[in-house]
Write a structure and sequence with these properties.
The protein is mainly α. The protein is built from 16 helices and no strands. The protein has one domain. The protein is globular and about 60 Å long. Belongs to the UPF0718 family.
Length: 335
């Protein structure tokens, strides 16, 4: 698999910058530097770096799994193991997160690759919204954060499963599995030629090529999303949120907006939600815990990069309506 010289230079430069960043982070004592900057900008820098450093390991996991799918999973294999009935296939797709413990950052490249390999759009979307919540790591962190409120723990898992099914069904009914991905010229050409592996290139080497390509492609959108999220976190007046926290109808919507802006990793968001326990209703905490991993600022930018804009807007509207209405029903019936 021969790469253009420009691509090699670009990736080499990116690797050098990452190496420089790691070197400075480990060996340079920034405490000795006196930076005369407003506290808010220092806070923005801290939040930005924390989001990026928290997300990068999961992005690496996601692009590597995506590359493995590209190299070792065939379209025929996906078709073989998927239930033929479009509605029945929603249920096993929602449970895939149990064996794929990935967060909302890592799931985007995986789902994109699966759809390119032949997975139906609505099944991929169910996996996209369910996997960041319905996995053992998130269950354990939520259980630990809400040890005295087990209804939040099981409510999060149950609502995530129900919402994922509703979202997948809505996507199926609206889009009928029409292609909603953005394809590059190289990918379109690749769809018309033989999918035989390139001679002289092992599947593992091909996997590494795909992983490096996707990492740099996804990384720029992660950085942009992390910067926007850190700006909101720094300059948003959080007292406005607490003033509305006791409303049964407004507080879930407020916490959903808060989850979208904060863009927390699903493995850690339960501890942030627990800190709002004395201010917001249980229903609004569930809205925060279910909505954030399904859609936030980071993965919105990634979705716009790889899916058609019309589909992304529709997807956001569907997820928002499904989570909000499900939480309202849950508050009336269970809480």
């Amino acid at each position: 698999m021969k790469k253009p010289a420009f691509s090699i230079v670009k990736e080499s430069l990116a690797l050098a910058l990452i190496g420089l960043f790691i070197y400075l982070f480990i060996f340079i004592d920034f405490g000795s530097f006196q930076i005369d900057a407003p506290k808010s900008f220092l806070n923005l820098n801290t939040i930005f770096l924390s989001i990026v450093l928290e997300a990068i390991p999961f992005i690496l996991l996601g692009v590597f799994v995506s590359a493995l799918i590209q190299s070792f999973v065939s379209e025929e294999m996906i078709q073989k193991y998927l239930p033929k009935n479009a509605v029945i296939a929603l249920f096993p797709a929602a449970l895939l997160g149990i064996i794929f413990p990935v967060c909302e950052c890592a799931i985007v490249p995986i789902v994109r690759r699966l759809i390119k390999k032949g997975m139906p759009l609505h099944i991929g979307i169910v996996f996209l919204v369910s996997a960041p919540i319905l996995n053992p790591v998130v269950f354990a962190s939520t259980y630990y954060a809400f040890q005295s409120s087990k209804e939040i723990v099981y409510g999060r898992m149950g609502l995530a499963f129900i919402v994922a099914i509703l979202v997948g069904l809505a996507v199926y009914l609206i889009f009928k599995n029409r292609d909603q991905l953005k394809w590059t010229r190289e990918e379109l050409v690749g769809r018309t030629v033989s999918s035989e592996p390139v001679k002289g290139v092992s599947k593992w080497k091909e996997t590494l090529f795909h992983a490096s390509d996707e990492f740099f492609e996804m990384g720029k959108y992660l950085i942009l999303g992390a910067f926007i999220a850190s700006v909101f976190q720094t300059f948003l007046d959080r007292s406005l949120l607490t003033d509305l926290g006791s409303s049964e109808f407004l507080s879930p919507a407020i916490m959903m907006a808060f989850a979208y802006i904060l863009s927390l990793c699903s493995e850690a968001d339960a501890f942030v939600a627990a800190s709002f326990g004395g201010t917001f209703t249980a229903g609004s905490l569930l809205a925060f815990l279910v909505y954030g991993p399904m859609i936030d600022l980071k993965n919105t930018i990634m979705l716009f990069a790889f899916f058609r804009a019309k589909f992304v807007f529709a997807f956001i509207a569907i997820v928002t309506a499904a989570v909000y209405l499900s939480v309202l029903v849950y508050q009336q019936v269970i809480l």
